[in-house]
Amino acid sequence: MYTPSQIFVKWEEIMYIVMIGAPGSGKGTAAKILAKELNLPHISTGDIFREQIKENTNLGIEASKYISKGILVPDDITIEIFKNRLAKDDVKNGGIFDGFPRTMAQVKALDEMLVKVNKKVDLVIELKIPDDVIVQRILNREVCSNKECGAIYNSKFKPSKVPGICDICGSKLVARVDDTEESIKKRIKIYYENLGGMIEYYREKNILYSIVPEDPTSDKASEQAVNSVLQKINNR
Ligand SMILES: [Zn+2]
After folding, report:
1. Is residue 116 over pLDDT 90?
2. Which of 47, 58, 86, 172 has a CA between 20 and 30 Å from the CA of residue 41?
3. Catalytic choice (27, 85, 137, 232)
4. pTM of the entire predicted model
5. Is 236 labeled as catalytic in the residue annotation?
6. 1 assigned to some structural domain
7. Which of 236, 235, 229 minimizes the C-alpha distance to 38?
8. In angstroms, rounded to a whole number, what is the distance separating the alpha carbons of residues 173 and 143?
9. What spacing in Å lies between the alpha carbon of 172 and ligand 1's midpoint?
10. Domain span at 112
11. Does the annotation count 176 as an active-site position?
12. Among this protein's residues, is 50 annotated catalytic?
């Protein structure tokens, strides 16, 4: 079902994994599943930013200035915040990085951080989902209005059993109105521009594993992507 590129890393050596994927690609979901399967911590920059903002740290306050405007947090702040997170004990023996690095400056910074502790990025997983599918995924997203439930549906790809009603708790579903086709396409474009030479950089190191799902509209696409990675690793 998937057409992954070659992978050359050894299973026993895999500790640090970088997830790459456009917003709406399902990268976060895939990272969560993989973290559970490999028993590694899932380190999401979104979570780190939220923590820092909640704790009202200087870096959190700086970051929130950009996040509230919908702008990507600049490299220096992001790198600093990530560095603090990487210094914590739970990441000493590996981790799955979701949302970092997302620029070449961050790629280099991560290499430097890991070299200092005699480690490196062992595997990079790129989730390649066609732009038009991402647009449809985000545009047709419906969220359960019950905040404690928060289930997510897609009126096109993963509809609830009863239209407009949550399968799990029976609350009303609300559409996200803040996204337009144009704004989503713009976000995807910015994402690719920011990547710069990241993909090539990791490909040259022979640690890039690109996954192109044949059926990216499936709500199981992220799960299937993870399975293809695990299979590839285990078959070595
Ligand atoms: Zn619900």
Report:
1. yes
2. 58
3. 27
4. 0.83
5. no
6. no
7. 229
8. 5
9. 8
10. 11-130+180-234
11. yes
12. no
